[in-house]
Amino acid sequence: MGRVNLRAGQKSAGNPAETIIQGDCIAAMNALPEKSVDLVFADPPYNLQLGGELTRPDQSKVDAVDDDWDKFASFAEYDRFTHDWMKAARRVLKDTGAIWVIGSYHNIFRVGATMQDLGFWVMNDVVWRKSNPMPNFRGTRFTNAHETLIWATRDAEQKKYTFNYDAMKALNDDLQMRSDWLLPLCTGGERLKDGDGGKAHPTQKPEALLHRVLLATTNAGDTVLDPFFGTGTTGAVAKKLGRNFIGIEREARYIKVARERIRLVKTGAAEDLKVTTSKKAEPRIPFGTLVERGLLEAGDTLYDPARRHAARIRARFIVEGANGPTTREADEILNDRGVVVVPDILANAGGVAVSYLEWVQDLQNFFWNEDEVNRQLQAIMIQSFRAVWDFSQAHDVPMRLGAYMVAVDKVADALQARGIWP
Ligand SMILES: C[S@@+](CC[C@H](N)C(=O)[O-])C[C@H]1O[C@@H](n2cnc3c(N)ncnc32)[C@H](O)[C@@H]1O
Questions:
Q1: CA 337 – CA 67 distance, rounded (Å)
Q2: pTM of the model as a whole
Q3: 230 CB less than 6 Å from ligand 1?
Q4: Which of 6, 139, 330, 387 has its C-alpha lying 20 to 30 A from 221's C-alpha?
Q5: Residue 389 beta carbon below 6 angstroms from any ligand 1 atom
Q6: Would you tell me how many other CB atoms lie within 10 Å of the CB of residue 295?
Q7: Residue 206: its pLDDT value, please?
Q8: Does residue 240 line the site of ligand 1, with CB under 6 A?
């Protein structure tokens, strides 16, 4: 068992309690009071079993996970470890508690079996589909583009557990949240760096993933435990969302990074942390209130190149409902000011999408009613928006450029897969 160094939970006025424990997670969890935690989020070693060095086609080395903490002598040893930490996690969970475990094909099936053997009750497996996965450089397998999360309650008979259905629906444009989540890998400014500019941790998870998990299955004031804390992604998001957290991590170097990261996080105001109930129950506020509260910046004026037309910015988003309404110059100004422009090629694509739906109906000689057409259209538009948004975020480009890049990608994929040319 590793050394356990328990720093008392720190709680400043109005802020959630923060506890970071250095040591082995099994010993540390066994030292915690029974039934004291609302949710466990675990990102354990994946036991990747990487043999040899992984290289790109240009022979450059891939930054793979080859750390000692991910190495186990055999599957049996990994299973024993999984059993022991999960049993310790179950002991600290309240009767209303639940667990999430994330893994890849290397370990998730073993983890799932152990989970069921210990008495947990699987609620969902969620596929985190990566919008920017690492390619399979050798071209010998499919691109490994997803990881799996298992969400389970503590017990099979458990009647009470937290699931914020409406908050999830609100996150998904008022459609029921599905079990496949398209989110980018942790890149860009979010990726923590070490002193040499390298990755501070090889498997830092994106905050967006934790945000969805915590928003779905905890409430403000709940206590979340992460036994494999790493750089403290769970802690950072928990603090932002007003949840107390306990993080356990063996390696001092990761704890140092986590502490510094979490120190900079601000907890949202209590009223903003309230979980969405149902859309209808939500109070409606005039648009002007958003400006009044400083959520939107009003008053900036944009001009066309000839300065004949002026437009006042009233929102952080501009959705182009017509073809080419924004000039190149305006695009640059808007981009500089952080205004997101949803480009015409995307926002204005509904007509073309419905033409396609008509074509499909014609081919089948079977016609849908208006509601069905609208439902299909909505799904297509949301999916396309997501694809472009995630791509733009992942590559740090405006949405217009992101849309072109996604389109070029699709053509390139089709060309590669089917040899179509031109
Ligand atoms: C997959 S990483 C977690 C990364 C984390 N989710 C993040 O976003 O930074 C697993 C972490 O568990 C830690 N670890 C491995 N075995 C452990 C153990 N027995 N007790 C505590 N921590 C352990 C490793 O040092 C590593 O940082």
A1: 42
A2: 0.66
A3: yes
A4: 6
A5: no
A6: 10
A7: 94
A8: no
